[in-house]
Write a structure and sequence with these properties.
homodimer, about 150 residues, mainly alpha, Arc Repressor Mutant, subunit A, about 50% helix, elongated, DNA-binding
Chain lengths: ~150, ~150
DNA sequence: TTGAAAAAAGATAAATTAGTCTTTATTTAT
DNA sequence: ATAAATAAAGACTAATTTATCTTTTTTCAA
């Protein structure tokens, strides 16, 4: 469904939203451990998220780390996917046809249209903060690990 | 969304359903050209489809080629995905968590559950023949090319 | 103003997926 | 029986994605 990059991007973003703040920046090691992802690779992905769409903010040096601004928290989940170049799920044809549209639909188009619209809804109407809130409900989990909300 | 393998598998299967029959078997070159896919690679995929789930049938030698049995035509689209090992879309967690379930849901679980159910519906309730019929409606297209139904 | 802590950037490696080519086996027709 | 047509099987190459390691830059605190 999604690439590893996209999965890590989402998990990392949710984790940062949940545990980080401007005066509690999180280090890459903590993040990678928490979401159970390869550290260096996750670092690369966070770089993408800081460069594109301003999803994640970062500062270097002592007490540096990653956090989300209030504005970033309001961004739709789609912004995360876009930042890692992975929004094809809601833009491309299921059968991979370049030219597939209402006027020239592929054999699955009719059926998939509605589902695609819902995926789009989900990724556009849900904000990063919304996901963090879900995660905060206690029983909800990132990577098999209960996250303690402060 | 889907891998190239899965896309080619679906396109090839639909094409064979539409144009082939037990006494009009289709050659790999025709198929690959028609669905605009790399020939040798598509051959590999058709091998998978003949070995797994009996989606496609084939015979070698002169006048050999690929076709679908009547039974195969009734198979759900999911059988094609399974045959190429690509049914993760309807089985796996969006965030890639190993342990994500009703009792231990990931932050997107609630939202995605319904969509996943619909994807499953689509892939399980739609048969290969159904897709071929769609394709037969005339304006519908495999790979930007109008397929002439006899 | 120096040292240490952090992310950024860059270079490389490993794994997976996609794609190609060659050889073999099977089938049909002559 | 033999030759030709075809898919199957296997070996190989290329591209992309995933992952790791090293070096550089920035920032803070002593």
């Amino acid at each position: 469904m999604l690439s590893k990059s996209a999965e890590y991007a989402l998990r990392a973003t949710i984790y940062i939203a949940l545990k980080g703040s401007e005066d509690n920046k999180l280090g890459i090691d903590e993040i990678a451990t928490a979401i159970d992802s390869p550290q260096y690779f996750t670092a690369k992905i966070l770089q993408l998220l800081t460069k594109n769409n301003g999803v994640v903010s970062s500062v270097r040096g002592p007490n540096g780390g990653f956090y989300l601004t209030d504005a970033a928290r309001k961004l739709p989940v789609r912004a995360v996917l876009e930042a890692v170049g992975e929004d094809g799920i809601i833009t491309k044809c299921v059968l991979g046809l370049k030219e597939c549209s209402e006027s020239r639909p592929c054999p699955m188009h009719e059926q998939y249209r509605y589902i695609k619209a819902q995926l789009r809804q989900m990724f556009e109407k849900t904000s990063i903060q919304d996901l963090a809130n879900e995660s905060g409900k206690g029983k909800i989990v990132i990577n098999n690990r209960q996250i303690k909300t402060k």
